[in-house]
Structure formats: C-alpha cells, structure tokens
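haha ok so turns out i had the wrong file open the whole time. this is the CORRECT one, sorry everyone. sequence first:
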Amino acid sequence: MNKQQYVIGLDFGSDSVRALLVNASNGDELCSGVSLYPRWNKGLYSQADIAQFRHHPRDYIEAMTSAVQQALADCSPDIRQNIVGIGVDTTGSTPAPINQDGEVLALLDEHADNPNAMFILWKDHTSVSKAELINQLAHGGQFPDYTRYVGGIYSSEWFWAKAAWVSEQDPQLAESIYSWVELADWIPALLSGTTAPDTLRRGVCGAGHKALWHESWDGLPDQAFLSAISPTLDGIRERMFQQVYSADQLAGRLSAEWAEKLGLNADIAVAVGAFDCHMGAVGAGAGAHDLVKVMGTSTCDILMVDPEELGERTIEGICGQVLGSAMPELVALEAGQSAFGDLYAWYKRVLLWPLQQLAEQQPELQAALQDLDQQIIPMLSEHCQQQHGNSPVAVDWHNGRRTPFANQRLTGNISGLNLGSTAPMIFHSLVEATAHGAKAIMDCFVNQQVPVKRVIAIGGIAKKSPLVMQTCADVMDCELLVMDSEQCCALGAAIFAAVAAEVYPDTASAQQAMASAVHLSYQPNPERVAFYRERHQAYRQLGDCVEGLCAKQGDE
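then structure:
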C-alpha cells in the first residue's frame, strides 16, 4: 500500500450496532461508535413470554447512522477521504418480509407497527412447530434430506420456519410479501442502493447455514418442498435467489444518499454481509481447527476445516457446514448456545424484581437501584470465586438448545437446591451450566473426528468475566485464548471490507495483516478439571431428564 487506507466494520448485535474504524494496513482500531436500537430498548414489538423478538428496520437505520457518525466525529479530513470500504456483520438468522421493490414491509406506513412486518430476531422461537414440520418433511422420504448440511435438524431460529410461520399468522400481511431477506444481506444492499430483489446480492453464509441453500441440489430446496412447509410459500423459490457470494466480494458501492448521511465518499466498496460469529472468527485470526466462541447474549461457535479433509462427510447436530461462510477457502462448521449472557441477565432480573417494585413506590431509591444493577453480577462473581463445594446443577436451556441437536422446546432447570443454597451458589451453577454447554459443543465435533487444536474466545464476556473464562477452561479441560480486540466481529467485517476494496488480493493476506493478537490465556486448573469432569456427567444426566420431561409435556 502506497498510502494509508481505512475501512469500517459494522457489527449489528441484538441490542445495538457498533461502527469500528480500522487502519487497513495493520488492523489498528482507531475509533468506534455504538448506538442502541431505540424502539427495541423501549421493549416495543417483543413479547418474551411467547418468545417473540422483533426489530424494527428503522432501529437499524437510525442506530447505524448514529454509530458511524460517532466513529467519524474526531477523524481528520485526510482519514475520511481515504476510507475505502465498509463491511457488515449481523445476528442471524434475522429475516424480514419485503415487497416487489425490495422494501421491508415495516418501512411502509400501512405496516409500520406490525411486528410481523419487521425483522424476526435470531432468538425468536415462535415458529417451533414450523421447524418441526420442516424436519418431518426432510426426513420423511418424499423429499431429499434438505437438512443434511445443517446438522440434520432444522431450527425455529432459522429462515424458512420464520417466513412460513409469520405468513400463516398474518394472512393480510402475506398478501404484500413478495420475498424475504436476511438482515446480513439487507444492510449492504441498503447502503449500496441494491435492495431490489433482482440486484440484491445474497451471502453464502446466511443462505447455506439458515436457508438450506446447497450447490448439490442446485441452490435452494425444490419449490414442492417449500410449498409443503406452507402454501404461503407457493412460488417463493423463483422470487428468492440462485447465486450466492462470499463476504470478500462486492455487494455494491456506497450510494450518494448514504454517503451524504454518513459523511463518506460515494462509490466506496460495500462488501457482502455475513453473520457476526463467522466474521468474528476471521477477526480473531482463526484458521483450520480453531474453535472460536463468540460469547455474548448467546454463543455462536465456528470451527473451520479444509474441504478436502471433510470430504463428503456431514457433521450431525450442528448448525451447518458451508464452504466460504467465514474464510473463503475453508468450510465453516457452526454451532452455539441459545442462551449464554442472557442466562446471567435473567438471574439478575429475578434478583432485582422486588427492589424494582419497591423503587416504583419510593422514587428516591432509583439511583441506588441503578447502581446495584451495575454491581450485582460483579458482586455475585466475586463471591463465586470463593465457592469450593458443590453448588446446584443446572442446564443452560432457558432459551432452548441450539447445539448439539437443536431443540427449542427445551427449558432450563436447576437441581440440587436446599435451604443452604445461596444466591452466589445458584449463580455459580448457571455459569457452570454455560461452560458445560460449551464442552458439549466441543465434544460434538471431536466425537465426530473433527479435531479442535485451539479454543479462542471473543465477545464482551471473554474480556469482562474471568470467572466465566476460568470455569470454561476447567470444564473443557483446555487452554482458552482471549483475543486483544473487544470487537473481533466488527474487525472481521473490516477485514472483508479491505478485500472487497482491493486493498488486499485475498482474505488470508488481509487477515494476516489485520487480525487481532492474543490478549491472555486461561489454563485449566488440574484439581478443578477432575471435579468438573464428574459435574459434567451430572449435567448430562439432568439434561436427559429435562429432555424427557419436555418431550412428555409436548405429547400431552
């Protein structure tokens, strides 16, 4: 590179969007901006009691604009002039219905407050029955097994289950639905003015892991299969897409409209989008046989392998195996936990509930309550460090199970409580449960002859919670590397932006120059490893009981 060039990585999370400005020559993170989704953070359009979680597209538009403007606020004119690309990662599967012009229906006045016209967040589980139907159809013999490359089980967290469920629940809205779009595809299209269905470029990441796209059956599943899922999907295949793209390719170029809004030059490269965990693995410098755990509200795990090593094998119980969904030349195997940080947040809400009620009656307590809200998890964590006995045993399925073998009907459970059980002991059981869930994922790979050479942790929890990290290292009985960057997902998006902008000839060379270094490592404690080995068996046994009970309740 003859001059300094810069790129922006946009990371769309569950609660906010982050914009990260990166020096493309060395990966230095210069500045960033974060903006919460305004409607989401007011609790609008979601109902947790029925697992309905929706994002209004205007939340994305407003938060993205604010985050980029924050990131660029203190930049010199020279840096602004030399920003050459934008990369995008998002949660997934987070699809939305669009009309024939490519407009998300909630952006139209007549559907502006209809949750079904919005983006259906990854953790929305309202479509469990549709996912079960998809599995019945795929395994019934009438159709090819379209779940073969997604671990053998389709999840309610994914594209087709959500599209079919929403369309059937809202027949009036269904009349306006022309097609569906994944958030990771919509943001780059929005920025480049290519949202029309015939110009919108779809990423292989979302298509392969969530929409059942595979080259062996010429793209998406056959129309007869899609129609069997729901009559509302009749004719949908020809209104979707045939070709897919990896994230190192161009989705388009920044439109004049968005260049003016963001304070950037028009026509800079906008890379094809992908899911946060896949780009996080690239930002963390991962290669073949590195298991990367993105630890946030949930976890998403990525393990990449050489396609020749995998051959024709398919790995059961995971969330898909797709060539090029992370590093373009490797197959990315995806897994994850449906609740991780969300589990800790749930427990905090339970403990704070009576205090919140009291503060409503006595407003002068609000300031103290807000302080406690910030201190309660660190306080519990500190006391957990002193736990050496047997705490209760829990399973981490409060939001269902993603891997191994997706089952969103499962629920959380805490066993072994007695009159001596304390708040820190219960919290410790939840932390331990998430670590046992992480081990179950690693075992799922290893037991199917996919070796794990390194385990890498990224995301907010990785840098903020030594308790969680050390517990994971002890339970998994392996070194756990924590990367220096707190924004590996956005950094990965920036790496792809640099390739799409032709700063680098390929992703491997961009990753080598720009990826995060290691911050620290957690080594397993031999004494605790032996203790947790027995506890893991208790976790498995409790899980079997919970699964049996949930199955029985589902049959009634």
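The longest strand covers residues 16-23.
again sry for the mixup
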